[in-house]
Design goal:
Strand content: 35-45%
Oligomer: single chain
Shape: globular
CATH architecture of the domain at 161-524: 7 Propeller
Distance between the termini: 39 Å
CATH superfamily of the domain at 161-524: YVTN repeat-like/Quinoprotein amine dehydrogenase
Number of helices: 3
CATH topology of the domain at 161-524: Methylamine Dehydrogenase, Chain H
Helix content: under 10%
Structural class: mainly beta
Strand order of the largest sheet: 2-43-42-41-40
Length: about 850
Amino acid sequence: MTRKKAGSRGRGGSARRTQAARHAPRQLAGRAAPEREESGPGGWFLEQVEASYLRLGAAGAPPPAPLPTEARLPSRLAFRSRLRPGGDETLLTVPSRSVWLDRLRGYKERKAASIGPVPAALARVGPRAAPAPMIPGGRNWLPLGPTVVMNGQTVGEEPVAGRVSGLAIAANARVGYAATACGGVFRSDDGGVSWQSLMDGFDVDPTNFAATSLACGAIAIDPADPERVYVGTGEGDTHQIFRRRIVNALPAYRGIGPIRSDDGGATWVGESTAPGDPELAGEAFFALAVDPGDREVAVGATTAGLYQRVDAGTGSFVWRLRRPGVHSSVVASRAAAGTRFFAAEWGVGVFQSPDGATWTAVRSGFPTHGVGRIALAMTPGETDLVYAFVVDTRGATLGIYRLDGSGPGWRKIAAPPPVIPTQGGEGQGDYDLAIAIDPADADLVYLGGSYANASPYPGSVWRCKVRTTAGGLAFGEKVSIGTHAHADVHVLAHTPQDPDELWCGCDGGVFLNRAPRSGGEFAGVNQGLSCLCSNFIAQHPTDPAILLTGLQDNGTAHTSGSPSWAHVNYGDGGYCLINWARPDRVLSFVNGTVCRSTTGGATHGGWSQVWDFGWATMTQPIVTPPYDPSSPGDADWIAVGAGSDVYVSKNFASSWPMTFTLPGGGAAGSAFALAFASTTRLFVGTTTGRVYRADRSGTNWTVTRLDDVPAGPLGVTGLVSDVAVDPADPTRSSIYVAFGGMGDARHVWRFDGSVWEARSGAGPMDGLLDVEHNALAIDPTAPANVYVGADIGVWHSPDAGRTWAPFQNGLPDAPVFDLQIHPTQRLLRAATHGRGVYEISLP
C-alpha cells in the first residue's frame, strides 16, 4: 500500500510532472533507492487512479468522463468528491452488495459443469488435504511461489510475505492463524516457523459458498479452544479505497460474510445474516471479538454495521445487526462480573455492551469533530480499561485516548509518537492502524501505523509508557521498535498472557518480537505464508525456472526455481521484463520509474539505471516485441506507457529517442496496456476505453484510433486492461482486448483490422462473467486457444473467444492480474493477487 519511489530525489522533491513535461524521461544516476510519500489511501493514488467499478457501458451511450488527475482538478477534495458515492456517477457504477456472491455462484456452477463430479478422495478440505480442486491424472496448476521472499523490504532484510489483515494466536503460542488480504487463512502449528494454507480446497462442493472469498479482514478464536475459528471475509482495511472504487493495483475486494471452523480450518461453514438484516455478503470485516466466557457469542465490526452472532433457535446461529454504520473495531474482555464489549463506529465514537446485544455510547471526553477511523484495545481479564487510537478524516493522528472505569471519562494522552507520518496533513491511518496493551502492564501500550522514517521505510511500531502528570496523562518513554518489521501495520497482538511475545501483521506478512519490552527486534516469520500479491511476471526465454515478479509493496522478486524467491528491487513492483535475446538484461517498473539491470536482476546490487517517467498509473506498462530468435535485435526494443505519452527505446532503455502522444487530449486517458506486433507496430489501450495503433516509419510514429472505426466500432467503453496481438493474422493487424469494470458481460473483444466483434461467449453457460478481466494470453502455436485472467478465475476459449469455460484445476480463486505463455516451453503462467505465481502445462 505504501508509496516508495525509486530514485535519488529527496523527500521534498516533487514526484509529479505535468503531461507537457513528460516528453523527456529524466535519467536518475545510481542504484534505485526507495523514497516514501504519504497522503492516505484515497490520496496517494491521485496520479494513478484505476477504478474497479468504472462504468463499462455500451457504445453509443454518452462516453464516461476522463479519469480525474491532479492536473485537471483544483484540489484533492475535488478529486475525492468525484469518486465518492453520490459524486460523479457518470464515471462510476455502484455494484450491489450481492454482486460477488452472484458472480461466484455463476462461476461455481460453470466450474462444476466443466470438471464433473469431484472424487470422494478429494472431498476433505484442510491443512493436510491436497491443494484441490485438482483433476486426478489431468493437467493442473502448480504453485511456483513465492512461499516467502528472502532479503525483504525491511531493515535487516527480513523474509517477507504478502498483506496480512488479522492474527489469532493461541495461549500456547504454538498454534496461530493469519488472515490475508487475498490469499485466505493460513495456520502455523510451530509458533510461526512455518505456515500452511487452509482454503485451497474450499470449493470441492460447488454449492458450498463457505469460503468462496479469499479476501479476509478479521479472524478470532475461542481463547480456550484454538480449533474454533471465526473469519470475517472482505478486507476492511481497504474500505476507503473500495468506497471510492480506487483499486486494481491494490484491490479492495468484498467478502461473502462470516465463516466458521470447528476443527482448526480443516472444514469451513458459512453463517448467514439474520432475516431482515442487511446481508454481509458484499461487505467487509475490520475486527471480530469472541466472548471469552461463551465461544458461541461473537461480535463483528463491519462495513455494514456491528453484528452479533446469535442462536437462531433451531440449533444454528445467525448474525444480527446491532448497530448500523461502518464499525472499525470491536474488543472484548471478561472478569468476575462478566464480559464487556467495546466497539468503535467510524467517524462517530465508542460504544459499550455487557452482552453484545445492547450498546450505549461512551462519549464523555471523546472528540466530537473530525473523527475518522478508530482502533480499540483491552487487556484480557480487565473490563474497565480500554484505549482508543483515533485518526482524523484525513488519516492523520487525532489522538490516543484512555478510559478507566472509575475515572471521569476518556482522557487524551499527550505527546504521542509519530506513528503515522503525514504529508500536507494527510496520512494512512484509514488503512493501517493498530494498538495493543502489554498483558502485564496496562500503562505500556504498543501503537502501529504506516512507516518509520528510515530507509527502506520499515514498519511503524512504537512502545509507549503512559505517565500520570499534573496536567493529566502523557506518553513518557516512546521507543520505535518496528525497524525490522515491514511497513503498513494492520494488527498487533500478544501471545495471550505473555508480554514478551508481540506479533505484527502488515503488508509484509507476519513478524514476531520476542522481547518487545526490552529492546528486542521483530523477525519475519513468513515461511510458507504464500500470500504475496503478484502484479506481473517476467520469464527467462530458455530457462523456465528463472522468473521475476512485481509485488504490491514488496518490490520485485526473483527465483531460479526455488519456491522461496529473493527480493531484488524496492517499492511497489509492477511490470518486469527480461530481454529474450540477452537475458542478463532486465527491466522493472517501480512507482513511476524504470530500473535496469545488466546482471540478470538477481540481486539488489544488479540495478544500475533509473528512468523517471512520472507516475500516471500505478503499474505503467513495459513491453517488448514477440519472441523471435531469428531477429535478436528486436529484443532491444522497449515501449513504456506513461499517461498519454508512449516512449520507445531501441537499445533496451539506454535512451528513449522516440515518443508519441495519444491524440484526443484528456479524453484519451492514460496508456494502460501496450502490445508490440513488431518493431514497427504497437497497440495501445487506455483507461478511458480507447484503442490505438501506432505505426513507425524511421523514428516517426503515426497513431490511428481504432475503437471508433465506422465499419464496426468497439461495442463497450471502459478501462482497457490488456491488449494481445493475434498471431493467427500474418499481417499483425488483429488484436484482442480485455476490459475491467462492470456493467456489461462483453469483457473480451477481437479486432480483425477493420471491425470489432465481441468474443465473450453468448450465454450463461459459455460466456464470461461480468467482473474485471485483467490479462490475456494467446497460444502462438494454436492461436484459436485464448486465455483470460479475471478477478474470478482463469478462463479458456478453444474457439477464439466464441465460447469460454473455467480453467482452474488447482488454481486458488485469487484474482489473476497477469497471464503469460513461456516463449520456448508449453507453459501458461498466472500472477495472482494474493497467492503468488502458478503454472500449468499446455497440450
